[in-house]
Write a structure and sequence with these properties.
The longest helix has 47 residues. Helix 8 packs across helix 14. The protein has one domain: Sodium/glucose cotransporter (Up-down Bundle). With 487 residues, it is mostly helical.
């Protein structure tokens, strides 16, 4: 048995080495900041679509989504329907602005519309948001590693961070996109394989699954009791899912550099639009797959009268490691690590691009050559790798890593989305009014998260409404000459 475990570990190690070498091979294409942060704008739309899915999928998704359906039902899919509506909003309102001239980050749009201070404020908000959320995601790696190695050793997490940092450092966004494609195929294939294995361990087949867990396939909660005490505390209702999911994804995919960077890397606006829409179909399939795994695991544990692991996020990786055939277990654990590396590489490159393009370059007092800027971009990537590792070390103790990551992000997303909506839909709101709206939103959302039981699915809706409302009110008393957007 010990020998068999070594074979699984060998599969994992082979994957880690292979993907690192593959990503580092793109180093020779990195000649300028355009290459490093936009991939030279040469990636095909389908690769960008897969990269978008990989960027919004992480270890949190892979291990957290089965835990949701294990303890509940398919209600999470209501949020995914909101994802589609959000993509239509982004294509209509935001994407045309991003393709007026060549932009490197989402926050350049804020300078065009409001001025440099709001560009730095929104960029700084993104840096804080992504650092905190990604720190939780990096910590999630320790859940998987602790099952495989029997320990939550920081050295194991450090190894993943260093390997991901290496190919991101060398290959820039090109390496990120193409390793995303490989890693997405791997973890989806691993999920399908694990689904087949779990189903094979359930006697009675699909009829038995429906008899034991038929209620778990409930997707929609259409209750319209808007004034009921629990209306805003139910995380997965139709209204919270579709409205909240729409606002959440409009913020994450339309205002956060992690996603906007991929949209900007497309050859033109049409290909960017296509990549965004196709990515929804893939993400819908993916979430359905992971929710189904959770239901099958529930039936498996019920049939065996087994006590599930605690916390719930351990259920899926623990089953894989303890029940799947030798080699297969190693492959699927490698797939889960692939999701972690994919998301981490995306975060590193987007954090570095925002740091250099929104802070370092505009504030620099001397001119630099492309090679000098490229060297600074790579140093910034390394610095952010160290910061994310540090945050991961203090992110222990969360109950649900998926919902923790989403709720952290949702606190800041409302302020970002609100000010972007102001930027593309108003002309009389100036920089000071917009900043006042963002500050009011951040303060409100810290209160909502800390001292209320409102579900995280409503966070971005509330935060956006506060940003827009306060900014419009302040603009009535503070008259500012708006900056005219230009390409």
């Amino acid at each position: 048995m010990q020998f068999m475990r070594y074979l699984d570990l060998g599969v994992i190690v082979a994957y880690l080495i292979g993907i690192t070498i593959f990503g580092a091979r793109f180093e020779e294409n990195q000649k300028s900041l355009r290459d490093y942060f936009l991939g030279g704008r040469n990636a095909p739309w389908w690769a960008i679509a897969f990269s978008i899915v990989s960027a919004e999928t992480s270890t949190l998704t892979v291990i957290g989504t089965p835990a949701i359906s294990f303890n509940g039902n398919f209600g999470f899919l209501q949020v995914v329907f909101g994802y589609l509506l959000a993509r239509i909003v982004i294509i209509t309102l935001l994407l045309p602005h991003y393709f007026r001239g060549e932009m490197f980050t989402a926050y350049e749009l804020m300078e065009r519309r409001f001025g440099p201070r709001l560009r730095r404020f929104t960029a700084g908000s993104f840096l804080a948001l992504r650092a905190m959320a990604e720190g939780v995601r990096v910590f999630a790696i320790s859940i998987v590693i602790s099952i495989v190695l029997g320990t939550g050793e920081v050295w194991s997490i450090l190894l993943i961070v260093i390997l991901t940092l290496f190919y991101t450092f060398e290959g820039g966004l090109t390496a990120v996109i193409w390793t995303d494609v490989v890693q997405m195929i791997l973890y989806v294939a691993g999920a399908i394989l694990s689904l087949v294995v779990i189903f094979g361990k359930i006697p009675g087949g699909w009829e038995h699954v429906m008899a034991v867990a038929g209620a778990k396939f409930t997707v929609f909660d259409f209750r319209t009791d808007f004034f009921a005490p629990d209306f805003f505390t139910r995380t997965f209702s139709f209204w919270a899912g579709v409205i909240g999911g729409c606002f959440l994804t409009t913020a994450s995919h339309g205002t956060e550099q992690l996603m906007v960077q991929r949209l900007l890397a497309a050859r033109n606006e049409a290909e960017s639009r296509r990549a965004l829409l196709v990515s929804w179909g893939v993400i819908m399939f993916q979430f359905t797959l992971f929710l189904l795994i959770g239901v099958l695991l529930y039936v498996y544990y019920q049939d065996g009268n087994l006590a599930p692991p605690n916390p719930p996020d351990r259920i899926y990786p623990a089953f894989i490691w303890n029940n799947l055939p030798v080699g297969v277990a190693g492959l699927i654990i490698a797939a889960i690590l692939a999701a972690a590396m994919s998301n981490l590489s995306a975060a590193l490159n987007s954090l570095a691009s925002t740091t250099v393009m929104d802070f370092w370059r505009p504030l620099s007092r001397r001119s630099r050559t492309d090679p000098e800027w490229l060297a600074l971009a790579k140093r910034s990537t390394v610095a952010w790798g160290a910061i994310l590792f540090g945050i991961a070390l203090v992110a222990q103790g969360v109950q649900s890593v998926l919902q923790a990551g989403l709720s952290i992000a949702s606190v800041v997303y409302g302020a970002l989305l609100g000010v972007f909506l102001l930027g593309v839909s108003t002309r009389h709101v100036g920089q000071r009014a917009a900043m006042a709206g963002m500050l009011a939103s951040l303060i409100t959302m810290i209160y909502v998260k800390s001292w209320t039981s409102i579900a995280w699915t409503w966070y971005v809706v509330i935060g956006s409404a506060v940003t827009v409302g306060v900014a419009l009110a302040v603009s009535l008393f503070i008259k500012e000459e708006p900056v005219q957007e230009h390409a």
